[in-house]
Specification:
It is built from two helices and 16 strands. With 315 residues, the chain is mostly beta strands. A five-stranded mixed β-sheet has the order 2-8-7-4-5, with no helix packed on it. A five-stranded mixed β-sheet has the order 10-16-15-12-13, with no helix packed on it. Strands 1-3-6 form a three-stranded antiparallel β-sheet, with no helix packed on it.
Length: 315
């Protein structure tokens, strides 16, 4: 800018000097403003060319590398399909099946090769309705000549009502104890309850004293679940005559101190109660615990009774 000012002053000086000469001869008229503008334009062009020439090009070897932006992976997979695993979700206390009565009670003596019909009268003690997709399914033990390992319900069963399930069976041709274990299965494949058929094949004198059934409640409320308090679980033993029953109890889920051996005298045929103490941990939000007990009757039967699907409700 300083150079432009100097050049402008110099040009004005030249113009003034030229206008101060002799006046005898006429001088052509000159457009002073045009001369000044042309000088300034030429001066600006020279300066621009000079500044351009002074710019030092950057050597290729010292060129600054381009900055590559860092791409951070998204922490969520929004927009991508997510695989969904289907699960069976049932309301609390939905499935509870209890035995109301039965034909051919456990311990019944049946002649060799005789046919009989086992009927369980079962009660829907839960909150969900059973439909005809539910069925009684064979689980283990002796099938006893049943023509099918599953028998569907013939009607819907609302909560608090009862239905019958009947299966035709045949006694084996060899003396001895035979037991079949069955469970009610929902249309979604969930098993609930435990129902048995247990017979003695032979004559009455072969089993003068026997345990005909071992049961416990289908549900127990007001359990203390604090990890330290002992809860006595009742077990009902029924015999067909007088005698002494020896038994072994085993808690499948580990809520007791271990196996419990004991004996119970009977002065006549009937039922008596024994108790198995269990300590339950603090449960989850549903406040339910599963109680599964294996009862082995050593004398007189030499037979296992599996007590499963007992719903314990903590208070």
């Amino acid at each position: 800018m300083k150079k432009i000012t100097c050049i402008f002053i110099f040009a004005m000086f030249l113009l003034t000097a030229c206008s101060g000469g002799a006046k005898e001869e006429p001088t052509p008229t000159v457009d002073n403003a045009s001369i000044i503008a042309t000088s300034i334009a030429q001066t600006m062009q020279v300066m621009a060319e000079t500044q351009t020439a002074q710019v030092t090009p950057t050597l290729a070897g010292t060129a600054t590398s381009a900055v590559v932006p860092t791409i951070t992976p998204a922490t969520t997979s929004a927009g991508l399909p997510t695989a969904t695993v289907q699960t069976v979700s049932l309301p609390t206390n939905c499935l509870i099946a209890g035995l109301a009565s039965e034909t051919i009670p456990d311990g019944t003596i049946v002649a060799k090769g005789a046919t009989f019909t086992k009927t369980w009268s079962i009660t829907n003690g839960g909150t969900c309705t059973w439909n005809t997709g539910y069925k009684m399914v064979f689980q283990s033990g002796d099938l006893l000549g049943a023509t099918s390992e599953s028998v569907a319900l013939t009607q819907n069963v609302a909560p608090g009502t009862m239905t019958n399930v009947s299966i035709k069976m045949t006694a084996p041709s060899t003396d001895g104890w035979y037991t079949g274990n069955w469970q009610l299965q929902t249309d979604g494949g969930v098993n609930v309850g435990n129902f048995t058929v247990s017979i003695y094949v032979g004559v009455a004198t072969a089993a003068p004293f026997s345990v005909t059934s071992v049961t416990y409640p289908s549900s127990i409320s007001n359990l203390t679940c604090d990890g330290s308090t002992s809860n006595p679980i009742p077990i009902y033993i029924t015999t067909d005559a007088a005698g002494t029953v020896t038994y072994n109890l085993y808690d499948i889920n580990g809520y007791s101190a271990g196996k419990l051996n004991g004996e119970k005298p009977f002065t006549s045929a009937g039922s008596q109660t024994i108790y198995y103490n269990m300590v339950f941990p603090v449960p989850g939000a549903d406040k339910l615990v599963d109680v599964d007990i294996q009862v082995y009757i050593d004398t007189p039967n030499h037979q296992d009774f599996y007590l499963k699907e007992l719903d314990g409700k903590c208070k």
